[in-house]
Amino acid sequence: MEEQLRQLMAAFSAFKEEMKADQISVKEKIEAEQEEMEREITYIIENKFEAMEGRTDTVETKVGQIEERVSSVKEQIEEFLLWNNKLKEECLPSNNKLMIGFLLPEPKKLTL
Fold this sequence. Notes:
It is a single chain. The protein is 80% helix and 0% strand. It has 1 helix and no strands. It has one helix at 2-91. The longest helix has 90 residues, at 2-91.
């Protein structure tokens, strides 16, 4: 009986060592998986930032193009306003009566 108890204790001790080894193995696998997940998450975040930077560059380019167009339209409006003011000065003498005669073509004589 004593021999059986020693064998049982030895088997139990071996079982404990095996369980400890399995526990360490599982812990190492979990840590390896966590590290892999962290690398994947970092990769995803970096890709998202790069994509956002690309979109930001695109938006900045479009804003620049719009600013150029607006500037061009602004210049055209300013030129028109200058032309319009000059035309008003030429058409409205000091008595503020519109001189239309020079704006309309000479009437043509109808021949029958």
